[in-house]
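User: Can you fold this complex?
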Amino acid sequence: MDLATLLFWIIAIILVGSSLLVVGLRNIVHSALALVVVFAMAAGIYLLLNAELIAIVQILIYAGAVTILILFALMLTRISNVRTNSNPINKVWWIGVIISTLVGAGIIFAVTIGPHSTVSVQTAYGAGYGSTNSACPLPPNNVAYIGQLLYSPTCYSYVLPFEIASIVLLVAIIGAIVIGRED
Amino acid sequence: MGLSLNHFLVLGALLFCIGLYGAIAKHNAIAVLMGIEIMLNAVNITMVGFAFYNTVKPWSTFLTGQIFAIFIITVAAAEAAVALAMIISIYRKRNTVDVGEINLMKW
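Assistant: Here's the predicted assembly.
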């Protein structure tokens, strides 16, 4: 067992355990704090997959911004018995268990045993990427390469979806201000 | 025994159904939102795994899965901002965040 596999198992066990804590804890502030561990461990998984930029963005946006937003919303919406049970579970929670078990079993069957499973297309760890076009030389690392893929006007890039995403963010900011303001 | 794509896909599936359970079975609207965030993270892990193990030559160089993950993170941040603004607005009007009691649009 090499180092990457060992790290994968450690991170995966912490990830699944802390996400079970998020859905299982009785105090919702503790759930929100367990969510930080989920996001940080997901960043570790991205580092294992050679996606450094996504790992940094995950720490900045999820563990930083989204968690703070959730904690602010919790602070602004206190419900009455916050000490005892601020994170109540539905009376028919077993239906949720059945549905999520069926969905998870379906996905795992499809990717491992089913007729279109990924077993037949396994490759060696570290397939990586390589340059195909001499006009657009490969940037030295993942961050520079993602930057070229997002912004470059001449090479192959995703610049139009990037602009649309900025419009989505603008609309979301204005919508959040309009919905959330006092009137 | 080394790592393969299936490790990451099964991890994503487990996280997805934990998040789905949280989104279905919770009464607090913010807890439902936390379940949705876990589900989006599961999809991101799947996408980055696909990007890493993709070897089809013209497209594997373009890191499509990682670009997908970036756009998913963008949309998730926008969704969290709008959803939390809606939850705070509902709390201000009805003094509750229990999704069982917010039934204004129930037939």
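The two ends of chain B are 55 Å apart (CA to CA). The mean pLDDT of chain B is 88.
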